[in-house]
Amino acid sequence: MSACGCQSSPALGADHEDAGCSGGEAFALRVLGQSMAPEFSEGEIILIEPDGALRPGCYVLARSEGEYTFRQLLQRDGQWWLHPLNPAWPDVPLPDLAEVHGVIIQAAVPGRRRLTRHYV
Fold first, then answer.
1. Confidence of residue 4 (pLDDT cuts 50, 70, 90)
2. DSSP letter assigned to residue 98
3. pLDDT tens for residues 19-58?
4. CA-CA distance, 46 to 49, in Å (whole number)?
5. How much is the pTM?
6. Where does residue 9 rank: exposed (0-12), middle (13-18), buried (19+ CB within 10 A)?
7. Which helix or strand (DSSP H or E) is residue 61 part of?
8. What whole-number distance in Å separates Cα of residue 7 and Cα of residue 88?
9. Element (H, E) at 114
10. DSSP three-state, residue 104
């Protein structure tokens, strides 16, 4: 398990290019942990768009401190931050937007189509 709270079927922590996806293909991960609760629950599937438009407040998959992490992207005083929704986890500064590897565009509870949420 990585700090992102996500699990994928390819080797965890591998770049999506290494997992057999081209740079522009959307891919899915499973949420692990509670760092993004209450909006995202453990076991949900998130769909990531690698070429998605970045803007403050969007949910992103980013590389931070050598691991992938799933957080909300915030900007305060000219600095970008990775913000967990659960207050038990701290905000982490993001020195470079190049560390963002995709934007979350959808979340779904497996087997519960009506609980699908879109974020674009």
1. very low
2. G
3. 444 568 999 999 999 999 999 999 999 999 999 999 999 9
4. 10
5. 0.79
6. exposed
7. strand 59-64
8. 21
9. strand 112-118
10. strand
